[in-house]
Design a protein that fits this description.
The structure is a single chain. The protein is mainly alpha-helical. The protein has 7 helices and no strands. It has helices at residues 6-19, 21-39, 43-59, 62-77, 83-87, 90-94, 98-126. Helix 2 packs antiparallel against helix 3. The two termini are 31 Å apart.
């Protein structure tokens, strides 16, 4: 994963403020809460889901690309026992030392579990 500098993170935050990101979030959240009320879904669950969605939007970048790969795998094949192997970048993995391979696999596993949890939350929220 790529580390972002403090300067880059601050610049992104400033751009979010300038672009009206938070105002859009407030209005979208209000609409989602109203829709949840009419559908009989817990408002707090809707707020937690939306907070996670905003956090993922802010993080963006590599996490979203990875999540999309995991989502495509889950939609096409379901939960499979060799998901980590399927998500491994084979060419990059071949260049690593033994310790780095272990670290890479553990990091990939952690990212997969987070993406799986996000996928389950989104499916639950969508009611599927």
């Amino acid at each position: 994963m790529k580390e972002r500098s403090l300067k880059t993170v601050a610049k992104e935050a400033k751009n979010r403020l300038k672009s009206g990101f938070w105002e859009n979030c407030k209005s979208e959240l209000a609409g989602e809460v109203a829709r949840a009320r009419t559908a009989g879904v817990s408002e707090s669950r809707t707020c937690r889901y939306f907070a996670g969605k905003v956090t993922c939007t802010i993080r963006g970048g590599d996490d979203d690309a990875f999540y999309n790969k995991v989502r495509a795998l889950l939609l096409s094949e379901g939960e499979v026992s060799d998901a980590i192997g399927r998500l491994t970048d084979k060419e990059y993995f071949a260049t690593l030392s033994y310790e780095d391979k272990q670290r890479y696999t553990l990091t990939l596993s952690e990212r997969y579990l987070k993406a799986l949890e996000r996928f389950r939350r989104e499916r639950e929220f969508e009611g599927r």
